[in-house]
Amino acid sequence: MRSLSRSIVRIFLNFLNRPFKYYISILLLLIGSGWLSSSPGSWGNNPGMALAASDPVIAAAGDIACDPSSSSFNNGNGTAGLCRQKNTSDLLVNGGFDAILALGDNQYYCGSYQAFLKSYDLSWGRVKSITRPVVGNHEYLTSGGTGCTSENVGASGYFQYFGTAAGNPSQGYYSYDIGGWHLIALNSNCGNAGGCGSSSPQGQWLKADLAAHPNFCTLAYWHIPRFSSGGRASSSTQSLWQTLYDNDAEVILTGHDHIYERFAPQAPGGTLDNVRGIRQFVIGSGGANHTSVGVIAANSQVHNDNTYGILKLTLHPTSYDWQFIPEAGHTFTDSGTTNCHGSTSNATTTVTPTATSTGTVTPTSATTPTRTRIPTRTPTPTPVIFPVVKSIVRANSNPTDFASVGFTVGFSESVTGVGSSDFALTTTGVTGAFIADVSGLGATRTVTVNTGSGNGTIRLDMRDNDSIKDVEHNPLGGLGSSNGSFTSGETYAVNKTKTILSTGGYDGWVLESTESSNTGGSLNKIAATLRLGDNAVNKQYVSILSFKTSSLPDNAAISSVTLRFKYAAKTGVLPFNTHGNLLADVRNGAFNDNPALQLADFKIVAGKSEVLIFPNNLVNNWYSQSFDPADFQYINLSGVTQFRLRFAKDDNDDFGADFLKIYSGNAAVAVKPQLIIEYYVP
C-alpha cells in the first residue's frame, strides 16, 4: 500500500503540470493492464512501484512575425524567403509541447497591439495559451511600422497582447517551473528593465529567485545574446550570466541575430568550460527574415543563416535533449544531449513501470535524483567592463563636396548620454564647420557635420567627459575625463572650391570692322594673349573667355564666383587711363549659342551686361573680381559659361593703337584665365 500511496501522490503532483487528458490515458493504461483491480492482492505483487510520466518538451525561437504592412506579408503566408512565421508555427500546432518560448522581437516592426493581432496572432498566436514570451528590442519601438506610435511606449502592445504571461510590464522578467526544471525569463533591454547589473532590480531579483528555486536543472532565456557570430552580441547581460553561472544554470536561449547557432558550454567571459559552463543557443529563426553569419565567435559549434525553424528541448530530470526542427521542405538540423550540472551522488532508486509490446507492465530500475547540488562556489566578482569607442568612420563618399556629411560612431555596447558636446572637429583648411546633429540609439550614433567652406580635411573626435554611460552607469573609458576619448577616426577630404581654366581654341579677340560699326570684322582664336582697347584706326578690340562649367556637379549650390586673368603687356597708352574701367558681360551658355569664337560675338546680346567691373587694380599681375550672389544664376552647370571683356569706352579717337594684353586659354597653364567657384552639394 506504501507503493500505491506514492503512486497516487505522484499522479496528483504531476497533474498540476500536465494536461488532464494525459493522466486519463495513464489511468486507462493501468486499468487495462490490471493495475487498478478490485482484488487487494494485485497491489501486493508489485511492491515499491511508481508510475512513469513522460518528460516535458518545450519549443523556442525568436524574431518571428513580420509587420503586416510588409510587402512580403502576403496575408500571413509570406514569400519564399520572408515572413515565414506561418510555416514555423505549423511546427508548433499539435506538436505536443508543454510550453512555447517566444524569444523576443516576436512581432515587427514595433510590436504594437494591432500588429500582433494582424500578424503574430494568425501564426504563433495559435499556441498563445502555452506561450511564455520574453520582450525584444523591437517591441519597445514607437515608430517605423504598423501601430508604431507613442502609444506603444514601454512595449505596451506586447504586454497587452500576452497579458499576465509576459510578467509585470515595468519589469518584463519572471520565472516558473516545468517538470523538475526551473525556467527564468529575463529582459535584455536593460534600460527598460532598470538595468542588468548585479545591483540592478533585475539582478537582485534573479539572485533571490535562484536562491528560492534550487532545482536540479535551470534554463534562462532572453532576447539579445551575450555571444553570437551574427554581429549583434552584447556584453550588457554579462552580470546576469555571472549570476546564472554561479548558480549552476545549464542553458541560455536567445534570439536577436536572425540565425541559428549553438555554443559549447562557456563561462561568462566567453572561455570554454565543460565542467560548469552554460550552453547558449541563438534561435532567431522564427520566420521574419534572415541575417548573416559573420566572423565565427569563439566556441561556436554549429551555425546556420538560411533555415527557419524552432529548437525543441526535452527536459529530463537530470539532462536535456535538443533538436533544431526546420520548416517543411528544409533539411538543416542539429541535435544532441547534455547532463545538468547537479550532483547525482545522493540519488535514490525507485521502480518505474514500463509497458511492453504485449501490454504487460515490466518493472525497470530508474534513479530519481534529489535536489542536492555540488556546493555552490564563491561567486567570482564580476569584472567591470567600461564602454569604449570602437570606431568613427565616414558615412558618405570621400572626397566630398557636400554641405554636410555623416560619421558613424560605434561603441562597444549600448550607451546613453551622447550629445554634440561630446564631440569635437579637427580641421585643416576649411572654415565654419560645425556639428549639426547627433542621432541614434544603443551602440551606434550618427553624427552629422556641416562642412563649412573652403577645401581641407575634417575629422570627428570623441572628447570624453564621463557624460556617456552604459546601462550599468559605467562611464566611457572608466572614471575620469579623457580616458574614453577617441581621436583616430576616419577623415573627410573636403573639396568645395573648383578652379576652372579657360578653354584654348574658344578664347580669342574680335576686332571691330570699322570705327563705330559695332560689328566684328576680324578675329584671332589662337593667340596666347587677348587684346582690349583700340587699334591705330580707332577700331575696338573685345575678347571672349570660355569656361567649361559643366565640370561642376549638376546640383551644385554656388556660394562664390571669382573671375581672374593675368596682365601680359600693353601697347600705347594703358586703356584704363583713357577708356575707363574694364567690363565683363556674361552668358549662361555660349554667345551666339556656339562656343567657337565668331565675329558675331562682338556685339551679340549677353545674359547680363557689365556683370563685373574691373578697375586698374593688379595683385601680383592678376586682375580679379567676384560675382554678386544674385548673378550666380549665369553660371551654366550643364555646359559652358562665356565672358566678353571690353572697355567702357570703345576708343579714344587718337588714331593710335592703345590696347591691353592679357593671357588667354592658349597660353601656359600657370597664366590661363581662371574661374574660381566655391560651391556645395546640398
What do these coordinates show?
By secondary structure, the protein is mainly beta. The chain folds into 4 domains: 43 residues, no CATH class; 286 residues, Metallo-dependent phosphatases (Purple Acid Phosphatase, chain A, domain 2), CATH 3.60.21.10; 106 residues, Immunoglobulin-like, CATH 2.60.40; 182 residues, Jelly Rolls, CATH 2.60.120. Helices cover 11% and strands 31% of the residues. It has 9 helices and 35 strands. The strands form 7 sheets. Strands 24, 25, 26, 27, 28, 29, 30, 31, 32, 33, 34 and 35 form a 12-stranded antiparallel β-sheet that branches. It has a 7-stranded mixed β-sheet with strand order 3-4-5-6-8-7-9, with no helix packed on it. It has a 5-stranded mixed β-sheet with strand order 2-1-10-11-12, with no helix packed on it. A hairpin with a 2-residue loop joins strand 3 and strand 4. Helix 8 runs parallel beside helix 9. The chain is elongated, with a radius of gyration of 40 Å. The protein starts with a helix and ends with a strand.
Distance between the termini: 89 Å
Which structural class do the helices and strands define? mainly beta
Number of domains: 4
So how many helices? 9
Would you tell me the overall average pLDDT?
Answer: 86
CATH class group of the largest domain: Alpha Beta
Low-confidence stretches: 1-52, 343-380
Radius of gyration: 40 Å
Helix content: 10-25%
Superfamily at the CATH H level of the largest domain? Metallo-dependent phosphatases
Instruction: Indicate the multimeric state.
Output: single chain
Please state roughly what percent of the residues sit in beta strands, choosing from under 5%, 5-15%, 15-25%, 25-35%, 35-45% or over 45%: 25-35%
Shape type: elongated
Summarize the biggest pleated sheet. 12 strands, antiparallel
CATH level-two architecture of the largest domain? 4-Layer Sandwich
CATH topology of the largest domain: Purple Acid Phosphatase, chain A, domain 2
What is the tally of beta strands? 35
